[in-house]
Amino acid sequence: MSDRARVVTFGELLLRLSPPGEERLFASPELHTFFGGAEANVAVALSHLGFRVDYVTRLPDGPLGDAALDALRHEGVGTAWIARGGSRLGLYFVEPGADLRTMRVVYDRAGSALAQIDPSEIAWPRVLEGASWFHATGITPALGNGPVGALTRAIGSARAHGIRVSLDLNYREALWRGRDPRALVEPLARQAEVLIGNRDAVRALLGVEADAPRLAERYGCRLVAITEREILGPREHAWSATLYDASSGAALRSKRHVVRVVDRVGGGDSFAAGLIAAVLNSHALPAALEFAVAAGALKLAVPGDFGRATTDEVERLVRQCT
Predict the structure, then answer these.
(1) Cβ neighbours of residue 194 under 8 Å, at least 6 residues apart?
(2) pTM for the whole thing?
(3) Which of 69, 201, 294, 312 is the most buried (most CB within 10 A)?
(4) What is the H or E stretch that residue 157 is in?
(5) 73-85 pLDDT, tens per residue?
(6) Phi and psi for 59 in degrees, rounded to 5?
(7) What pLDDT digit, counting tens, does each position of 96-111 carry?
(8) Which residues contact 208 (CB under 8 A, 6 or more apart)?
(9) Which residues pair with 243 in a beta bridge?
(10) Element (H, E) at 82
(11) How many Å is the Cα radius of gyration of the chain?
């Protein structure tokens, strides 16, 4: 089905700046640049897995917005529905550190083009025409009234047209600035067919523990995926996930991948892309879970936000772990 299925994702594209190697921010005169952002990462990963993908966002006019469009097109992502306007592209700075606990992230995205979006700018029925899947994350509701309004319209339109909806409960503490996210995120979770997250994100965004069967019952989701990352050493992480199917009551646990980490950003996004790809390709759920976990593990071994693993590469890793 991958040669026909079309996926739409929506969120904020950012320019990431990171010092080389293990340098601290601004201790080096160099900063390496990458484009990224959770929903764009999912779009890029799905493109490399062979799907037609359209990414929807709002980018500023000018050289940075043009460069962002070029980067997406280079990855095979559709950009026809990207709005232009506003004065700036959001930035974020990443100091990798020795492991997850010391990684430092600094955002500079207030007043960005997407943060100032008017929800009526995106004609969602037209954007979603012919789509099989719509994907979003818990980051967008934190960005302001315009983004959450646009996302609410998108999910409503997707559901009205029978399009599957997935929501990844990504949590960014710095964006919420002490606000309680539940009032904004819970209504979105109740409209998602597929809910994805790690335990900390579920607790922060929904105020409940990440018990997948209870999440499925509480929010009416068909599938609930919970990812787990274990810090084994400065650059060694273990990566696994569980998947619960509400229709059958089956609770599945994946194999555990031990990964030599090059860049920890984007692993969860590649997991989400892998799960979407496997479900659209009608994989049995145990196989879909293993495919998604392998896709996430492969991303951790490459620099930058984008995961570019092909279906053959993911399937090869799955076979190696059987």
Answers:
(1) 164, 165, 166, 167, 221, 222, 223, 224, 225, 275, 276, 279
(2) 0.96
(3) 294
(4) helix 145-160
(5) 999 999 999 999 9
(6) -120, 150
(7) 765 444 678 899 999 9
(8) 202, 214, 215, 218
(9) 225, 252
(10) none
(11) 18
